[in-house]
């Protein structure tokens, strides 16, 4: 089964990006000195994940608990 068919259908600018790199095309482009006509990521997910986990840990340490019932 070919991977990336859906994304390449709607984003033809990613047509030359290999399947293994389709979710991080800018990393691939930089490594191979290619120029992409595709916007750069807005969020650095590694940084955002760390900030979120740190916030959860602070909340947990403060004794806050997530509510299971909507208010």
Automatic annotation (TrEMBL):
It comes from the Bacteria. Its EC number is 4.1.99.3. Pfam families: FAD_binding_7. The keyword Iron does not apply. The keyword Ribonucleoprotein does not apply. Residues 3-57 form the Cryptochrome/DNA photolyase FAD-binding domain. Signal peptide: none annotated. Keywords: Lyase. InterPro entries: Crypto/Photolyase_FAD-like_sf, Cryptochr/Photolyase_FAD-bd. One of its GO terms (molecular function) is deoxyribodipyrimidine photo-lyase activity. SUPFAM superfamilies: Cryptochrome/photolyase FAD-binding domain. This is Deoxyribodipyrimidine photo-lyase. It comes from Enterobacter agglomerans. The lineage of its organism: Bacteria, Pseudomonadati, Pseudomonadota, Gammaproteobacteria, Enterobacterales. The gene is phrB_1.
């Amino acid at each position: 089964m070919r991977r990336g068919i859906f994304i390449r259908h709607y984003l033809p600018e990613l047509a030359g990006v290999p399947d293994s790199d389709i979710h991080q095309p800018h990393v691939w482009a930089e490594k191979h000195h290619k120029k992409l006509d595709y916007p750069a990521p807005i969020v650095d997910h590694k940084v955002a994940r760390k900030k979120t986990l740190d916030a959860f840990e602070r909340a947990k340490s403060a004794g806050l608990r997530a509510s299971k019932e909507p208010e």
